[in-house]
Amino acid sequence: MTLSHVDTEAEAVDDQALSRPSHGRRTLVVASASLLLAVLVLAALSLSVGAGEVGPGDVLDYLLGRDGARDNSRLSLVVGDLRLPRTLTALLVGAALGTSGSLLQAVTRNPLAETGLLGVNAGASLGVVVGIAFLGVQSGMGHLLWAFGGAIVASGLVLLIAGRRGGGSPMRLVLAGSALGATFGGVTSVIIVNSAETYDRFRFWVLGSLAGVEGYDKLTGLLPVLAVGFVVALLIARPLSALALGDDLARGLGHRPSTIRVVVAVAVTLLTASSVALVGPISFLGLLAGFLARAVTGPRLTAQIALAGLIGAGVLTGADVLARVVSRPFEAPVSVIIALIGAPVLIGIVRSRRMGAMGMTDPATQEAGRPPRRLLPRIPRPAQGTKERSESLVVRRGALSLLLPRRAALAALALAALLVAAVVLSAYAGQNEMSLSRTFNAVFGSGDHFDVLMVQKFRLGRIVAGLTAGAALGLAGCLTQTLARNRLATPELLGVNDGATAAVLLSTTLTGTFGAWWAGPLGALAAVLVVTTVSGGLGQRGYRVLVVGLAMSALASAVTQVVLSRRSLNSASSLYVWTSGSLNGRGYSVAVPVLIGLAVLVPLALVVARRLNVLRFDDSTASSLGVAPGRVRLVCLLLAVGLAGLAVGICGPVGFVALASPVIAGRLAGPLRVPVVGSMLTGAVLIVVADTVGRVVFDGVEVPVGIVTTVLGGPFLLWVLLGRSASARV
Hints:
Elements: H1 3-19, H2 24-48, H3 56-64, H4 73-108, H5 120-135, H6 140-162, H7 170-193, H8 196-205, H9 217-235, H10 237-243, H11 247-252, H12 257-279, H13 285-297, H14 301-325, H15 334-351, H16 382-390, E1 392-397, E2 400-405, H17 406-428, H18 436-443, H19 449-484, H20 496-511, H21 519-535, H22 542-565, H23 569-579, H24 588-614, H25 619-624, H26 629-651, H27 657-669, H28 676-696, H29 705-722
Antiparallel strand pairs: 1-2
């Protein structure tokens, strides 16, 4: 950062402070007092609402010790052991998450920074699940220790990424956190999918709830850790304010930026790990509290942190009250209530006119410290086109001829050969002992009857389902990445996969039967219509689409978790495996709709491939070359949605295949063409190989294909984020 840039920012901050009215401090005091009063009212409401037929009068008698109320065993149980600890926990956890969100937003100068989006919750969740599954941890302090370990690993990795070049980019940081969260989530799924007992405890805990808070044991054990986190947060507020003007100026004022970031990470880890240990992971609350506090306080960071804690306490307490009353006699998951509140706020951030003050105006592809890209891209010179023709293959058949790019053709042949090898390996590999020769005989219907049945009916059908789903996901990823001009704009990050998954599960609940393939495309279409409408379309500001997609994914994922929590353990376990992405039991019948879809959609995608190349330029350039950007985007969007929805109908939401396939195919085929065929072949290879690995990696246990791709896809996304290639940068 240059000195002139620092001076400009300092002047902007000074102008903003001077432009405030003289009664700004009074306004802040009034707002704080109003929020405090609202929190007190919500706390009183929390003490008065719930099961047990104990009204406000009885609660007041118990709190004041009137008329021997504290000697009443029923009042002691309902108020003293249930409602009072639950209310105090909601206040403390909400304040902790609100404070953490404000700290992260300040240290990263990123309005999207939040513990859930940055992978800290997923890291803490993994720690707790490891403790539960392998050590039988049940106490609050045990949860804290394991949550602390997972959270500190996640926060350390995220802040390490933030310290690298370009780490200040909001979308880069959010997507890096998403990558870490996905990896931790995949490892968590590997653990719980192999233990029904662990899953039974996890499926309710992961929703985030205060229903399990009884007594003061857990709260008392974690209270010192929360207190240390709050104290550190308040002490670091002033040095953190200096960091807002840049590292150079902060050093000039006597601060050490690296030390400040480490202290912030410690505070966030303490607060988040304690919160996850108490009530489970709750996303969006830190983002919501931090953003609202910033809107009230402006640049006053100390007041901002304190107010964010107050807002977080009020929102979580209010959400907990709503969770008790909206679906009586049951309780709604509090995380779902928070998601319904937080997702619109997240959308509001990216559509706000104040995004310039929040660091969200730069394109997601622009690196910090680099000159801005040209408004009009450089058109290839004739010499380059001549070189491209000289590196092409001419295929002639009578009067017909076809010009094929040499590199792309060779890459497609190599991928096809790799796909054949993957199919052979998948047909051969398995838990039972079968030689390669017996496998080949069984493929052609000869040999032992059991071998033929095993290979032809089960393995080959499963392979065909995996091939079609992988090809559909690869092509969908290629279309969406080119459409949004962003290597990370894939169906799972646009909310398509989660929308399709939620639709399939809802159709299962309504119809009583599983396997309605048509529900996947309908859910995907509904999700993408919401995302594109709210974000303003798939234009040059691809980060808007991605951020709204994250919000849509959170909402759809909450719906999925609620559906699973309402079903019996056996039904929920089997559906959970499918929602992780699985080919178990899938065969020719479920692959037929996708095969038909590919037969229709692939030729159409090949036709629009040349126009997709032009869409890599801006809209004015594309229009001058005779392409209608709006029409091409609509066609490509419908193609991608249909393909991704059909793929989810086959094997559930398999993660990262749509991301990795176009990137790998593009590296092989070269940057001058949209790798339509290569992306399909790569996606098919990845699905078949991942399914094979999942079947053989553990003896006697099958790991769903989606979990395999998620565990491996998180590091791949980080490699894309941190790679030196300009085509892969975010």
